[in-house]
Amino acid sequence: MARKSRKQTESPMPAPSLYVYVALYIRLSVEDNKKRGCSVENQKLVLNDFLADKPDFVVYDTYIDNGLTGTNFHRPGFQQMLSDIEAGHINCVIVKDLSRLGRNSIDTGYYIEQYFYAHNVRFIAVTDQFDTADPGNLHGGIMLPLKNMINEAYSLDIGRKIKAQARQAMKDGDYIGARAPYGYRKDPDNCHKLLIDENTAPVVKQIFEWAYERVALNRIVRNLNEMGIAAPSHYKKSTGEITSPGLIGSGKWQTRTVMKILESEVYTGDLVQGKTKMVDHQQVKADDDNLIIARRTHEPIISHELFTAVQEYRKQVCEESRAVPKRPYTPNIFKGKVFCADCGRSLHRQRAERKKGPDIYWFHCLTNSRVAKDTCKGVMMQETELIATVTTILEKELSVALGMSLPLFQLEARQKQKKDGLKSQMSAKRQEIEKQRRLIRGLYENFVQGILTSDEYFELKAGYEESITVLSGDIEALEKDMDALDDQLVRYRAMEKDAKSLAQDHVLTAELIERLIERIEIDHERNIRVFFRFKSEFQGEAVK
Q1: Whose CA is closest to 361, among 378, 344, 377, 338?
Q2: pLDDT by residue (tens digit) across 429-466?
Q3: N or C: which terminus of the chain carries fewer CB neighbours within 10 A?
Q4: pTM confidence score
Q5: Which candidate, 277, 25, 68, 243, places its Cα nearest to that of 167?
Q6: Owning domain of residue 240
Q7: Quick one: 391 and 494 in the same domain?
Protein backbone atom coordinates (compact mmCIF):
# COMPACT_ATOMS: atom_id res chain seq x y z
CA MET A 1 0.00 0.00 0.00
CA ALA A 2 1.14 3.54 -0.72
CA ARG A 3 2.54 5.30 2.33
CA LYS A 4 1.39 8.72 3.35
CA SER A 5 4.04 11.42 3.64
CA ARG A 6 5.77 11.70 6.97
CA LYS A 7 5.70 15.00 8.78
CA GLN A 8 8.37 15.21 11.43
CA THR A 9 7.51 17.63 14.19
CA GLU A 10 9.30 18.75 17.27
CA SER A 11 6.21 19.96 19.09
CA PRO A 12 5.82 18.99 22.76
CA MET A 13 3.96 15.86 23.81
CA PRO A 14 0.18 16.34 23.81
CA ALA A 15 -1.68 16.33 27.08
CA PRO A 16 -2.32 12.79 28.34
CA SER A 17 -5.65 11.28 27.31
CA LEU A 18 -7.90 9.01 29.32
CA TYR A 19 -7.54 6.46 26.56
CA VAL A 20 -4.75 4.71 24.74
CA TYR A 21 -5.63 4.02 21.09
CA VAL A 22 -3.98 0.73 20.27
CA ALA A 23 -2.73 -1.01 17.14
CA LEU A 24 -2.40 -4.78 17.54
CA TYR A 25 0.26 -6.05 15.14
CA ILE A 26 0.44 -9.75 14.24
CA ARG A 27 2.95 -11.37 11.91
CA LEU A 28 3.26 -15.00 10.89
CA SER A 29 6.23 -15.97 8.77
CA VAL A 30 6.75 -19.13 6.73
CA GLU A 31 9.19 -20.55 9.29
CA ASP A 32 6.59 -19.98 12.04
CA ASN A 33 4.01 -22.29 10.44
CA LYS A 34 5.57 -25.34 12.03
CA LYS A 35 5.96 -23.76 15.46
CA ARG A 36 3.33 -24.00 18.14
CA GLY A 37 2.41 -20.75 19.79
CA CYS A 38 3.13 -18.54 16.79
CA SER A 39 -0.16 -18.89 14.92
CA VAL A 40 -2.28 -15.83 14.20
CA GLU A 41 -4.96 -17.16 16.56
CA ASN A 42 -2.44 -17.69 19.37
CA GLN A 43 -1.02 -14.19 18.97
CA LYS A 44 -4.56 -12.77 19.13
CA LEU A 45 -5.21 -14.68 22.38
CA VAL A 46 -2.01 -13.37 23.98
CA LEU A 47 -2.81 -9.79 23.02
CA ASN A 48 -6.46 -10.00 24.12
CA ASP A 49 -5.45 -11.52 27.47
CA PHE A 50 -3.04 -8.64 27.95
CA LEU A 51 -5.82 -6.10 27.29
CA ALA A 52 -8.45 -7.87 29.40
CA ASP A 53 -7.79 -5.82 32.54
CA LYS A 54 -7.01 -2.56 30.76
CA PRO A 55 -10.29 -0.75 30.03
CA ASP A 56 -8.41 2.42 29.10
CA PHE A 57 -6.82 0.65 26.08
CA VAL A 58 -9.03 1.10 23.00
CA VAL A 59 -8.17 -1.10 19.99
CA TYR A 60 -8.16 1.06 16.87
CA ASP A 61 -7.38 -1.82 14.51
CA THR A 62 -5.63 -5.18 14.21
CA TYR A 63 -2.95 -5.44 11.48
CA ILE A 64 -1.99 -8.89 10.21
CA ASP A 65 0.82 -9.97 7.87
CA ASN A 66 0.39 -13.68 7.23
CA GLY A 67 3.28 -15.66 5.76
CA LEU A 68 5.62 -12.66 5.38
CA THR A 69 9.27 -12.46 6.40
CA GLY A 70 10.47 -10.42 9.32
CA THR A 71 13.73 -9.35 7.68
CA ASN A 72 12.16 -6.45 5.79
CA PHE A 73 9.30 -4.08 6.59
CA HIS A 74 7.61 -3.88 3.18
CA ARG A 75 4.54 -5.66 4.46
CA PRO A 76 1.01 -4.43 3.65
CA GLY A 77 -0.31 -4.73 7.20
CA PHE A 78 2.74 -3.01 8.72
CA GLN A 79 2.67 -0.21 6.11
CA GLN A 80 -1.04 0.39 6.76
CA MET A 81 -0.30 0.63 10.48
CA LEU A 82 2.37 3.27 9.79
CA SER A 83 -0.12 5.26 7.70
CA ASP A 84 -2.65 5.19 10.55
CA ILE A 85 0.06 6.25 13.03
CA GLU A 86 0.96 9.21 10.85
CA ALA A 87 -2.73 10.09 10.51
CA GLY A 88 -2.88 10.40 14.32
CA HIS A 89 -5.20 7.43 14.92
CA ILE A 90 -2.79 5.37 17.03
CA ASN A 91 -0.61 6.12 20.05
CA CYS A 92 0.34 2.59 21.09
CA VAL A 93 1.55 -0.53 19.22
CA ILE A 94 1.33 -3.94 20.89
CA VAL A 95 2.91 -7.19 19.65
CA LYS A 96 3.24 -10.65 21.16
CA ASP A 97 7.04 -10.45 21.19
CA LEU A 98 9.82 -8.43 19.60
CA SER A 99 10.31 -10.90 16.73
CA ARG A 100 6.75 -10.20 15.52
CA LEU A 101 7.79 -6.64 14.73
CA GLY A 102 10.84 -7.83 12.78
CA ARG A 103 14.03 -9.87 12.78
CA ASN A 104 16.27 -7.20 11.24
CA SER A 105 18.08 -5.68 14.22
CA ILE A 106 18.89 -2.30 12.65
CA ASP A 107 15.43 -1.60 11.22
CA THR A 108 13.62 -3.01 14.26
CA GLY A 109 15.70 -0.79 16.53
CA TYR A 110 14.95 2.21 14.31
CA TYR A 111 11.17 1.76 14.62
CA ILE A 112 11.24 1.16 18.38
CA GLU A 113 13.79 3.75 19.40
CA GLN A 114 13.25 6.49 16.79
CA TYR A 115 10.11 6.20 14.67
CA PHE A 116 7.65 5.35 17.47
CA TYR A 117 9.28 7.89 19.79
CA ALA A 118 9.08 10.65 17.16
CA HIS A 119 5.35 9.96 16.67
CA ASN A 120 4.61 9.73 20.44
CA VAL A 121 3.71 6.05 20.07
CA ARG A 122 4.14 3.66 22.98
CA PHE A 123 5.45 0.18 22.08
CA ILE A 124 4.74 -3.00 24.05
CA ALA A 125 6.07 -6.54 23.44
CA VAL A 126 3.95 -8.66 25.78
CA THR A 127 5.92 -11.89 26.33
CA ASP A 128 9.26 -10.05 26.33
CA GLN A 129 7.85 -7.72 29.05
CA PHE A 130 9.06 -4.73 27.10
CA ASP A 131 7.24 -1.39 27.36
CA THR A 132 8.71 1.91 26.22
CA ALA A 133 6.51 3.71 28.77
CA ASP A 134 8.24 1.93 31.67
CA PRO A 135 11.36 3.89 32.67
CA GLY A 136 12.52 1.02 34.84
CA ASN A 137 12.24 -1.57 32.11
CA LEU A 138 15.04 -4.07 32.60
CA HIS A 139 14.92 -5.07 28.96
CA GLY A 140 15.82 -1.58 27.74
CA GLY A 141 19.30 -0.29 27.10
CA ILE A 142 21.65 -3.01 25.90
CA MET A 143 19.06 -5.80 26.13
CA LEU A 144 16.79 -4.47 23.35
CA PRO A 145 19.47 -4.40 20.63
CA LEU A 146 20.71 -7.77 21.87
CA LYS A 147 17.24 -9.31 21.60
CA ASN A 148 16.83 -7.86 18.09
CA MET A 149 20.24 -9.21 17.05
CA ILE A 150 19.26 -12.67 18.32
CA ASN A 151 16.04 -12.53 16.27
CA GLU A 152 17.95 -11.43 13.18
CA ALA A 153 20.55 -14.15 13.63
CA TYR A 154 17.78 -16.75 14.01
CA SER A 155 16.11 -15.60 10.78
CA LEU A 156 19.41 -15.62 8.85
CA ASP A 157 20.29 -19.03 10.25
CA ILE A 158 16.94 -20.49 9.18
CA GLY A 159 17.37 -19.02 5.69
CA ARG A 160 20.91 -20.39 5.36
CA LYS A 161 19.83 -23.85 6.50
CA ILE A 162 16.96 -23.98 3.99
CA LYS A 163 19.26 -22.87 1.14
CA ALA A 164 21.97 -25.33 2.18
CA GLN A 165 19.49 -28.22 2.35
CA ALA A 166 18.08 -27.35 -1.07
CA ARG A 167 21.51 -27.14 -2.72
CA GLN A 168 22.61 -30.41 -1.16
CA ALA A 169 19.42 -32.05 -2.47
CA MET A 170 20.29 -30.73 -5.96
CA LYS A 171 23.80 -32.18 -5.72
CA ASP A 172 22.31 -35.51 -4.67
CA GLY A 173 20.25 -35.54 -7.86
CA ASP A 174 16.90 -34.74 -6.23
CA TYR A 175 14.37 -32.76 -8.24
CA ILE A 176 13.15 -29.88 -6.04
CA GLY A 177 10.66 -28.21 -8.38
CA ALA A 178 7.03 -27.81 -7.33
CA ARG A 179 5.73 -29.58 -10.47
CA ALA A 180 7.32 -32.14 -12.77
CA PRO A 181 8.45 -30.88 -16.20
CA TYR A 182 6.10 -31.61 -19.09
CA GLY A 183 6.86 -35.15 -20.27
CA TYR A 184 7.51 -36.41 -16.73
CA ARG A 185 5.58 -37.12 -13.55
CA LYS A 186 6.76 -37.31 -9.96
CA ASP A 187 7.40 -40.70 -8.41
CA PRO A 188 4.46 -41.31 -6.01
CA ASP A 189 6.92 -42.89 -3.53
CA ASN A 190 9.51 -40.11 -3.82
CA CYS A 191 8.47 -36.62 -4.91
CA HIS A 192 12.13 -35.77 -5.69
CA LYS A 193 12.40 -38.39 -8.44
CA LEU A 194 11.07 -38.07 -12.02
CA LEU A 195 9.33 -40.81 -13.97
CA ILE A 196 8.39 -40.89 -17.65
CA ASP A 197 4.84 -39.69 -18.34
CA GLU A 198 3.67 -42.06 -21.06
CA ASN A 199 1.02 -39.58 -22.22
CA THR A 200 3.27 -36.59 -22.84
CA ALA A 201 6.79 -37.94 -23.34
CA PRO A 202 6.04 -38.79 -27.03
CA VAL A 203 4.97 -35.16 -27.58
CA VAL A 204 8.29 -33.90 -26.20
CA LYS A 205 10.18 -36.34 -28.42
CA GLN A 206 8.20 -35.20 -31.47
CA ILE A 207 8.95 -31.53 -30.74
CA PHE A 208 12.71 -32.26 -30.66
CA GLU A 209 12.51 -34.31 -33.86
CA TRP A 210 10.71 -31.48 -35.66
CA ALA A 211 13.31 -29.00 -34.42
CA TYR A 212 16.09 -31.35 -35.61
CA GLU A 213 14.40 -31.46 -39.03
CA ARG A 214 14.54 -27.63 -38.98
CA VAL A 215 10.81 -27.11 -38.75
CA ALA A 216 10.17 -23.49 -37.72
CA LEU A 217 8.85 -22.78 -34.23
CA ASN A 218 5.63 -21.30 -35.60
CA ARG A 219 5.06 -24.45 -37.67
CA ILE A 220 5.69 -26.68 -34.64
CA VAL A 221 3.13 -24.71 -32.64
CA ARG A 222 0.59 -24.97 -35.46
CA ASN A 223 1.15 -28.71 -35.75
CA LEU A 224 0.57 -29.25 -32.04
CA ASN A 225 -2.61 -27.14 -31.97
CA GLU A 226 -4.01 -28.69 -35.15
CA MET A 227 -3.36 -32.17 -33.72
CA GLY A 228 -5.51 -31.19 -30.73
CA ILE A 229 -2.76 -31.81 -28.18
CA ALA A 230 -3.48 -30.03 -24.91
CA ALA A 231 -0.95 -27.39 -23.91
CA PRO A 232 1.17 -28.29 -20.82
CA SER A 233 -0.83 -26.11 -18.41
CA HIS A 234 -4.15 -27.60 -19.54
CA TYR A 235 -2.76 -31.13 -19.35
CA LYS A 236 -1.53 -30.53 -15.80
CA LYS A 237 -4.94 -29.11 -14.97
CA SER A 238 -6.52 -32.41 -16.08
CA THR A 239 -4.12 -34.35 -13.83
CA GLY A 240 -4.75 -32.05 -10.86
CA GLU A 241 -1.18 -30.67 -10.75
CA ILE A 242 -2.41 -27.15 -11.53
CA THR A 243 -5.56 -25.76 -9.92
CA SER A 244 -4.99 -21.99 -10.01
CA PRO A 245 -6.90 -20.33 -12.92
CA GLY A 246 -4.07 -17.81 -13.32
CA LEU A 247 -1.65 -20.59 -14.35
CA ILE A 248 -3.86 -22.36 -16.88
CA GLY A 249 -3.76 -19.98 -19.86
CA SER A 250 -5.65 -20.26 -23.14
CA GLY A 251 -5.10 -23.97 -23.69
CA LYS A 252 -3.19 -23.36 -26.94
CA TRP A 253 0.48 -24.00 -27.54
CA GLN A 254 2.68 -20.90 -27.80
CA THR A 255 6.16 -20.42 -29.29
CA ARG A 256 7.59 -19.59 -25.84
CA THR A 257 6.26 -22.92 -24.48
CA VAL A 258 8.00 -24.86 -27.26
CA MET A 259 11.21 -22.82 -26.78
CA LYS A 260 11.23 -23.64 -23.05
CA ILE A 261 11.00 -27.37 -23.82
CA LEU A 262 13.76 -27.20 -26.46
CA GLU A 263 16.10 -25.39 -24.02
CA SER A 264 15.65 -27.82 -21.10
CA GLU A 265 18.42 -30.40 -20.39
CA VAL A 266 16.02 -32.38 -18.19
CA TYR A 267 14.87 -34.37 -21.26
CA THR A 268 18.37 -35.86 -21.61
CA GLY A 269 18.13 -37.49 -18.18
CA ASP A 270 20.22 -34.77 -16.48
CA LEU A 271 19.13 -32.24 -13.89
CA VAL A 272 20.40 -28.67 -14.22
CA GLN A 273 19.09 -26.68 -11.24
CA GLY A 274 19.90 -23.40 -9.56
CA LYS A 275 19.15 -21.27 -12.64
CA THR A 276 17.45 -18.72 -10.39
CA LYS A 277 18.10 -17.35 -6.92
CA MET A 278 16.38 -15.10 -4.36
CA VAL A 279 17.61 -11.50 -4.03
CA ASP A 280 15.71 -9.19 -1.67
CA HIS A 281 12.90 -11.76 -1.58
CA GLN A 282 12.55 -11.74 -5.37
CA GLN A 283 13.45 -14.51 -7.81
CA VAL A 284 16.12 -13.44 -10.34
CA LYS A 285 18.29 -15.22 -12.92
CA ALA A 286 21.45 -16.62 -11.36
CA ASP A 287 24.99 -16.75 -12.72
CA ASP A 288 26.40 -19.95 -14.16
CA ASP A 289 28.40 -20.39 -10.95
CA ASN A 290 25.10 -21.06 -9.16
CA LEU A 291 24.18 -23.99 -11.44
CA ILE A 292 24.19 -27.52 -10.03
CA ILE A 293 24.32 -30.31 -12.62
CA ALA A 294 23.50 -33.92 -11.76
CA ARG A 295 23.92 -36.52 -14.52
CA ARG A 296 21.68 -39.51 -15.29
CA THR A 297 19.21 -38.89 -12.49
CA HIS A 298 16.18 -40.17 -14.41
CA GLU A 299 15.17 -41.87 -17.65
CA PRO A 300 15.84 -39.66 -20.70
CA ILE A 301 13.25 -38.85 -23.38
CA ILE A 302 15.84 -37.80 -25.98
CA SER A 303 19.55 -38.41 -26.48
CA HIS A 304 22.30 -35.96 -25.64
CA GLU A 305 23.27 -35.97 -29.30
CA LEU A 306 19.78 -34.87 -30.42
CA PHE A 307 19.67 -32.15 -27.75
CA THR A 308 23.10 -30.80 -28.75
CA ALA A 309 22.21 -30.79 -32.45
CA VAL A 310 19.02 -28.82 -31.79
CA GLN A 311 20.88 -26.25 -29.66
CA GLU A 312 23.53 -25.76 -32.34
CA TYR A 313 20.90 -25.24 -35.04
CA ARG A 314 18.93 -22.76 -32.93
CA LYS A 315 22.16 -20.88 -32.16
CA GLN A 316 22.99 -20.76 -35.88
CA VAL A 317 19.54 -19.36 -36.74
CA CYS A 318 19.92 -16.72 -34.04
CA GLU A 319 23.37 -15.65 -35.27
CA GLU A 320 22.20 -15.45 -38.89
CA SER A 321 19.28 -13.30 -37.87
CA ARG A 322 21.54 -10.91 -35.96
CA ALA A 323 23.96 -10.67 -38.87
CA VAL A 324 21.31 -9.17 -41.15
CA PRO A 325 21.31 -5.36 -40.74
CA LYS A 326 17.89 -4.04 -39.95
CA ARG A 327 16.48 -0.58 -39.91
CA PRO A 328 14.87 0.32 -36.59
CA TYR A 329 11.12 0.08 -36.32
CA THR A 330 9.12 3.26 -35.86
CA PRO A 331 7.34 3.50 -32.46
CA ASN A 332 4.09 1.56 -32.23
CA ILE A 333 1.56 4.08 -30.89
CA PHE A 334 -1.09 1.33 -30.68
CA LYS A 335 1.01 -1.02 -28.51
CA GLY A 336 -1.24 -3.35 -26.51
CA LYS A 337 -4.43 -1.75 -27.85
CA VAL A 338 -5.33 -3.48 -31.15
CA PHE A 339 -7.13 -6.85 -31.21
CA CYS A 340 -8.81 -9.21 -33.66
CA ALA A 341 -12.60 -8.94 -33.39
CA ASP A 342 -12.98 -12.61 -34.39
CA CYS A 343 -10.57 -14.53 -32.12
CA GLY A 344 -9.75 -11.80 -29.59
CA ARG A 345 -5.97 -12.16 -29.93
CA SER A 346 -3.66 -9.16 -30.11
CA LEU A 347 -2.81 -8.09 -33.66
CA HIS A 348 0.80 -8.34 -34.79
CA ARG A 349 2.50 -5.24 -36.23
CA GLN A 350 4.59 -6.18 -39.22
CA ARG A 351 6.85 -4.07 -41.45
CA ALA A 352 7.18 -4.22 -45.20
CA GLU A 353 10.57 -2.71 -46.08
CA ARG A 354 10.89 -0.59 -49.20
CA LYS A 355 14.05 0.49 -51.00
CA LYS A 356 12.53 3.85 -51.82
CA GLY A 357 10.26 5.75 -49.48
CA PRO A 358 9.23 4.94 -45.94
CA ASP A 359 8.49 1.39 -44.80
CA ILE A 360 4.87 0.25 -44.68
CA TYR A 361 3.43 -1.16 -41.45
CA TRP A 362 0.54 -3.60 -41.21
CA PHE A 363 -1.55 -4.99 -38.39
CA HIS A 364 -2.68 -8.58 -38.88
CA CYS A 365 -3.84 -11.61 -36.92
CA LEU A 366 -1.39 -14.52 -36.52
CA THR A 367 -3.89 -17.05 -35.20
CA ASN A 368 -4.09 -19.06 -38.44
CA SER A 369 -0.32 -19.19 -38.84
CA ARG A 370 0.73 -19.67 -35.21
CA VAL A 371 -2.19 -21.40 -33.49
CA ALA A 372 -4.17 -23.48 -35.98
CA LYS A 373 -5.27 -23.12 -39.60
CA ASP A 374 -8.81 -21.86 -40.31
CA THR A 375 -9.52 -20.99 -36.65
CA CYS A 376 -9.94 -17.27 -37.37
CA LYS A 377 -11.39 -15.24 -40.25
CA GLY A 378 -8.22 -13.19 -40.32
CA VAL A 379 -7.54 -9.45 -40.17
CA MET A 380 -5.14 -7.21 -42.07
CA MET A 381 -5.04 -3.41 -42.05
CA GLN A 382 -2.39 -0.87 -42.97
CA GLU A 383 -1.26 1.31 -40.06
CA THR A 384 -1.89 4.59 -41.90
CA GLU A 385 -5.53 3.61 -42.47
CA LEU A 386 -5.90 2.64 -38.81
CA ILE A 387 -4.45 5.97 -37.63
CA ALA A 388 -6.71 8.02 -39.92
CA THR A 389 -9.86 6.11 -38.95
CA VAL A 390 -9.20 6.14 -35.21
CA THR A 391 -8.35 9.88 -35.32
CA THR A 392 -11.67 10.65 -36.99
CA ILE A 393 -13.63 8.46 -34.55
CA LEU A 394 -11.86 9.97 -31.54
CA GLU A 395 -12.47 13.57 -32.65
CA LYS A 396 -16.16 12.83 -33.14
CA GLU A 397 -16.62 11.02 -29.81
CA LEU A 398 -14.80 13.72 -27.82
CA SER A 399 -16.97 16.38 -29.45
CA VAL A 400 -20.14 14.43 -28.64
CA ALA A 401 -19.09 13.76 -25.04
CA LEU A 402 -18.21 17.39 -24.40
CA GLY A 403 -21.32 18.63 -26.23
CA MET A 404 -23.54 16.54 -23.98
CA SER A 405 -21.86 17.93 -20.89
CA LEU A 406 -22.36 21.06 -18.89
CA PRO A 407 -20.06 24.02 -19.64
CA LEU A 408 -17.03 24.01 -17.36
CA PHE A 409 -18.18 26.93 -15.19
CA GLN A 410 -21.58 25.26 -14.63
CA LEU A 411 -19.93 21.94 -13.86
CA GLU A 412 -17.59 23.59 -11.34
CA ALA A 413 -20.56 25.30 -9.65
CA ARG A 414 -22.45 22.02 -9.47
CA GLN A 415 -19.42 20.17 -8.07
CA LYS A 416 -18.90 22.90 -5.44
CA GLN A 417 -22.53 22.57 -4.35
CA LYS A 418 -22.14 18.82 -4.00
CA LYS A 419 -18.87 19.18 -2.08
CA ASP A 420 -20.43 21.67 0.32
CA GLY A 421 -23.17 19.15 1.02
CA LEU A 422 -20.63 16.39 1.63
CA LYS A 423 -18.59 18.64 3.94
CA SER A 424 -21.72 19.38 5.97
CA GLN A 425 -22.46 15.67 6.33
CA MET A 426 -18.86 14.93 7.36
CA SER A 427 -18.90 17.70 9.96
CA ALA A 428 -22.12 16.36 11.50
CA LYS A 429 -20.69 12.82 11.68
CA ARG A 430 -17.43 14.04 13.25
CA GLN A 431 -19.44 15.86 15.89
CA GLU A 432 -21.38 12.69 16.57
CA ILE A 433 -18.12 10.72 16.93
CA GLU A 434 -16.82 13.22 19.45
CA LYS A 435 -20.11 12.91 21.33
CA GLN A 436 -19.73 9.12 21.46
CA ARG A 437 -16.15 9.49 22.72
CA ARG A 438 -17.30 11.83 25.48
CA LEU A 439 -19.86 9.24 26.48
CA ILE A 440 -17.12 6.58 26.60
CA ARG A 441 -14.97 8.84 28.78
CA GLY A 442 -17.95 9.31 31.09
CA LEU A 443 -18.40 5.55 31.27
CA TYR A 444 -14.78 5.10 32.26
CA GLU A 445 -15.06 7.69 35.01
CA ASN A 446 -18.21 5.95 36.29
CA PHE A 447 -16.36 2.61 36.18
CA VAL A 448 -13.42 3.99 38.17
CA GLN A 449 -15.82 5.48 40.75
CA GLY A 450 -17.61 2.15 41.11
CA ILE A 451 -20.91 3.43 39.65
CA LEU A 452 -20.74 0.85 36.87
CA THR A 453 -19.70 -2.78 37.13
CA SER A 454 -17.07 -4.19 34.79
CA ASP A 455 -19.70 -6.02 32.72
CA GLU A 456 -21.86 -2.91 32.44
CA TYR A 457 -18.87 -0.81 31.43
CA PHE A 458 -17.68 -3.13 28.68
CA GLU A 459 -21.20 -3.71 27.33
CA LEU A 460 -21.99 0.02 27.07
CA LYS A 461 -18.50 0.80 25.79
CA ALA A 462 -18.85 -1.79 23.00
CA GLY A 463 -22.09 -0.15 21.84
CA TYR A 464 -20.53 3.31 21.65
CA GLU A 465 -17.43 1.96 19.87
CA GLU A 466 -19.61 0.22 17.32
CA SER A 467 -21.33 3.55 16.62
CA ILE A 468 -17.93 5.22 16.20
CA THR A 469 -16.84 2.51 13.77
CA VAL A 470 -19.98 2.97 11.65
CA LEU A 471 -19.62 6.75 11.67
CA SER A 472 -15.93 6.52 10.74
CA GLY A 473 -16.87 4.29 7.81
CA ASP A 474 -19.44 6.84 6.71
CA ILE A 475 -16.85 9.63 6.84
CA GLU A 476 -14.39 7.55 4.82
CA ALA A 477 -17.07 6.97 2.16
CA LEU A 478 -17.86 10.69 2.05
CA GLU A 479 -14.16 11.51 1.68
CA LYS A 480 -13.99 9.15 -1.30
CA ASP A 481 -17.00 10.91 -2.81
CA MET A 482 -15.17 14.23 -2.38
CA ASP A 483 -12.08 12.84 -4.11
CA ALA A 484 -14.25 11.47 -6.92
CA LEU A 485 -15.71 14.92 -7.56
CA ASP A 486 -12.21 16.42 -7.78
CA ASP A 487 -11.08 13.65 -10.11
CA GLN A 488 -14.13 14.27 -12.29
CA LEU A 489 -13.14 17.89 -12.86
CA VAL A 490 -9.54 16.91 -13.61
CA ARG A 491 -10.72 14.39 -16.21
CA TYR A 492 -13.07 16.94 -17.77
CA ARG A 493 -10.32 19.57 -18.13
CA ALA A 494 -7.95 16.95 -19.58
CA MET A 495 -10.61 15.81 -22.05
CA GLU A 496 -11.24 19.41 -23.15
CA LYS A 497 -7.50 19.90 -23.69
CA ASP A 498 -7.15 16.64 -25.68
CA ALA A 499 -10.17 17.49 -27.85
CA LYS A 500 -8.75 20.95 -28.65
CA SER A 501 -5.29 19.54 -29.46
CA LEU A 502 -6.71 16.82 -31.71
CA ALA A 503 -9.03 19.24 -33.53
CA GLN A 504 -6.14 21.63 -34.26
CA ASP A 505 -3.32 19.21 -35.14
CA HIS A 506 -5.14 16.01 -36.20
CA VAL A 507 -2.14 14.12 -34.77
CA LEU A 508 -2.74 10.87 -32.90
CA THR A 509 -0.06 10.13 -30.30
CA ALA A 510 0.68 7.18 -28.04
CA GLU A 511 -0.07 9.38 -25.02
CA LEU A 512 -3.50 10.32 -26.36
CA ILE A 513 -4.33 6.70 -27.12
CA GLU A 514 -3.25 5.56 -23.65
CA ARG A 515 -5.35 8.26 -21.94
CA LEU A 516 -8.49 7.97 -24.03
CA ILE A 517 -8.71 4.48 -25.52
CA GLU A 518 -9.11 1.16 -23.73
CA ARG A 519 -9.20 -1.21 -26.70
CA ILE A 520 -9.50 -1.26 -30.51
CA GLU A 521 -11.05 -4.21 -32.36
CA ILE A 522 -10.83 -4.81 -36.12
CA ASP A 523 -12.87 -7.45 -37.95
CA HIS A 524 -12.33 -9.34 -41.22
CA GLU A 525 -14.11 -6.58 -43.19
CA ARG A 526 -11.75 -3.96 -41.66
CA ASN A 527 -14.51 -2.45 -39.55
CA ILE A 528 -13.08 -0.74 -36.48
CA ARG A 529 -14.66 -0.61 -33.03
CA VAL A 530 -13.10 1.65 -30.41
CA PHE A 531 -13.68 1.23 -26.66
CA PHE A 532 -13.05 4.52 -24.87
CA ARG A 533 -11.75 5.22 -21.39
CA PHE A 534 -13.92 8.33 -21.12
CA LYS A 535 -17.69 8.61 -21.04
CA SER A 536 -20.22 11.39 -20.65
CA GLU A 537 -20.17 11.47 -16.85
CA PHE A 538 -20.43 15.27 -16.66
CA GLN A 539 -23.99 15.68 -17.86
CA GLY A 540 -26.20 18.03 -15.94
CA GLU A 541 -29.83 17.54 -15.21
CA ALA A 542 -30.72 20.55 -17.36
CA VAL A 543 -28.92 19.39 -20.47
CA LYS A 544 -31.23 18.25 -23.29
Answers
A1: 338
A2: 999 988 888 888 888 888 878 888 888 888 888 888 88
A3: C
A4: 0.47
A5: 277
A6: 184-323
A7: yes
